[in-house]
Amino acid sequence: MISEQARFAVRGCFVSQISADQINTKNQRLSASKPQIPKHKKTNHMVNKKLNRRNFLNTSTKVAAGAIILPHFYIGKSKPKLSEEVIGHGKFTYKVHKEWGNLDPSQRPVKNCHEMVMDSKGRLIMVGDETKNNILVYDKSGKLLDAWGISYSGGHGLSLWDAGGEEYLFICDTSGTLIKTNMAGRELMRIGHPSEYGAYEKEDKFNPTESAIAPNGDIYVADGYGSQYVLQFTQKGEFIRKIGGGRGDRDDQFQTAHGVCIDDRNAAEPTLLITSRAHNSFKRFSLEGKYIETIFLPGAFVCRPVIDGENLYAGVCWSRLKYLNRTPDSGFVTILDKENKVISNPGGTAPKYVKGQLQLMLQEQAIFNHCHDVCIDDDKNIYVCQWNANKTYPIKLERI
To answer: Which CATH superfamily groups domain 13-18+84-399?
Structure first.
């Protein structure tokens, strides 16, 4: 355990700093080695004799009574081939690889695969809420490279920041903390309840779901399961401001501020895109917190926005099916162009505009349960993380 933490107050902010030699032993790296498959020895009886009726009945009785215990082992299967099923629309179509990320659940279990990012080495890094291994690191073939993190019971949001060639991870734990780590999992900084720096009252809920890092290193934290604000800090964890009007239905307010990202497609004037999931929308703000516009996505309960090149991608956790209610197991993926027009919905209905207005979007193919995040690789393949999907691993969509 860390025997002592240096704590300091800066600009009204209370932040826990952890030095390089104060490694959080709760989050030591876990071995990613594969389990050994036990070998079974053949007895002379098995080799030289066939079971007669009496032996067979005797053996069957012993098994039923628990006298014979068969060893548990896992036979790892080779990764299956891609499905021939094609989903998506226009130039954004994909083949589905549902078992791409499958691992031995007895060794590397998952509860919910919440989010994924790709680092400069092309490694795909996923966060979940299973404390046997909060972080799973894959290569593009689906091979497990590394696993670590054993204390983030609310592991939910994952962002990557490239600070001039040095990369860092930011993990949102919905139990009430943002954690900055290096790529090996050593904790470097924690940001806790906003009452510590005067942004909230002590009784206000704080359950952060997502973070985003601005070009200058400022940190934006979306309190999507808490009080519905986005909080801005310096890269050192100094509190700057609270963005938005909290929970509500005004343009500057949110209903589940689940995600946030830096939209840098206009490099001269980057902005914030903030999810308002129950509003089926993304809301754009300046980096200083001024409301600009709303991008409506009717029918789509979107999670965090993900920028790749000129396009915006998002997982859709639910869509509105029967009676237009939020329907379980109705997720899909949505893709927008640089004009923020929907151009493809893998797993969903084809986007349709009438007099410039986007029409209701729904799940069309029952491929996904609840799409919680997407990650795009250099070949424009999509990796889909799912919440509440029967403890399944990430799915790969191969671009055609």
So the answer is: TolB, C-terminal domain (2.120.10.30)
